[in-house]
Amino acid sequence: MLLITCPVTRSDELVPDRRIRSVDNHPTHIALHVECPACGAVHVYRTGRRWEQARTRAADRAADRAAAAGTARAARVGVPA
Ligand SMILES: [Zn+2]
Q1: Residue 36 alpha carbon to ligand 1 centre in Å
Q2: pLDDT at res. 56
Q3: Cβ(41)–Cβ(33) under 8 Å?
Q4: What's this model's pTM, rounded to 2 decimal places?
């Protein structure tokens, strides 16, 4: 069984293994093609340690950029005219 979130209906669905249409093994992740019980479409879910690490690094970089932008804004506000 898999727990997926349908990107169309945004609902969480418990999916039996027989609804997994195919599994692709990639160097960085495994792609599961799952027939969705909510909307009937096939969604792709990627999983794997390296895939999660890459996503975490990307999220960290985005957070760093946001923090840097916030610091720059605060610095500009703090500079007397
Ligand atoms: Zn769906």
Answers
A1: 5
A2: 84
A3: no
A4: 0.63
pLDDT tens figures, 12-45 = 999 999 999 999 999 989 999 999 999 999 999 9
Q: Where are the domains of the chain?
A: 1-47, 49-81
How deeply is 34 buried, as exposed, middle or buried, from its count of CB atoms within 10 A (0-12, 13-18, 19+)? buried
- Measured CA to CA, the distance from residue 51 to residue 22 in angstroms comes to 18
Instruction: Give 43 Cα–ligand 1 centroid separation in angstroms.
Output: 7
DSSP per position, 44-71 = EEEE-HHHHHHHHHHHHHHHHHHHHHHH
The alpha carbon of 54 and the centre of ligand 1 are apart by a number of angstroms equal to: 25
Contact 54, 41 (CB under 8 A): no
Place of tokens 């093994």: 25
Would you say 33 and 44 are in contact if contact means Cβ atoms under 8 Å apart? yes
